[in-house]
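>> Question from a student workshop board

For tomorrow's exercise we were told to take the sequence and the ligand below, predict the bound structure, and bring the output to class. My setup keeps failing. Could a helper post the expected result so I can at least see what it should look like? The ligand is 6-O-phosphono-beta-D-tagatofuranose.
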Amino acid sequence: MSEINTLKQKFSIPGIVTIEPGNGGLTRIAVTTRDAEAHIYLHGAHVTHYRPAGGKDVLFMSGKSLFQAGKAIRGGVPMIFPWFGAKAGDSAAPMHGFARTSAWELTDARQSPDGSVSITLELASSEATRKSWPFEFALRYVVTVGTTLDLSLETRNLSAGPITFEEAFHTYLTVGDVRTARVEGLAGRDFLDKTDGAKRKTQPPGPIAITGETDRVYLHTTDMVSVTDTALARRLIVDKRGSRTTVLWNPWIAKAKAMADFGDDEWPAMVCIETANAAEDAVTLPPGQTHKMAASIIAKTGAKGDRPGTNQWEMSGGAKQ
Ligand code: TA6
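>> Workshop helper replied:
Here is what the output should look like for this input. Compare the format with yours to find the bug.
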């Protein structure tokens, strides 16, 4: 029996969750609830689509993305682990780690009483991962599809000693026009400016306008970030827990042209707000311990939205990691 049929038998929920061949024939989980729909590929545990009921697509997907083994999908929410960007001291290692090009295992699909659907995918260390990262680990990624898109990644250290890793939900948000969008929630934070030799700078007060290639790693920030998109008359909010880094990226014109899997004219339609632990915020985890990073992606149409620069989990009384 095919992989898809086996998975369908075990995990499908009639009318809510199905498993199907997606782009490039890659196995895709399709979730449809009264509140939203989403697509998640086993390849890279990659969320490629999330649309709240009655709303517009929240995640940007490049029309030129590849869908093939060994290649990252361009758009949606690439899963970045265990290093961010280039691997220090190993130019042959894949950018952004191996998690986004690995085959993850679907291990659970369930609907909650509130109607949201949680999909669990797992990835464990293997001969393949040890080649570039000689440590034992287990990842558990829970994607919850409802009125918000909630992502939760647990990393368990199965090694005899501590492990140090970087991680990110490299989230591509759809905007009507990045040139008129404004990003809030990062004022006063230090960042590494990757368009300027990774120089350390401090974000001035006020909303951020994107006026050129922008590639900034904001450090030691646990705050919610919002993108006010006047072109689509909505605010997209990325709230988070267990993350101390936020990355802001738009390739702009030249970089867009330089990416074969990204349309030359696609850069105005996206901005990445990445929930991460990277650079100085890399995580060091003792043996046997587990670290959790979570994000909540919220689309508010026309509303004033939440006050940026705070953490909704805290405001709702949730524990802060
Ligand atoms: O998160 C921003 C960034 O690190 C940029 O420097 C750019 O490289 C982007 O990620 C995309 O990386 P990728 O390997 O997916 O082409």
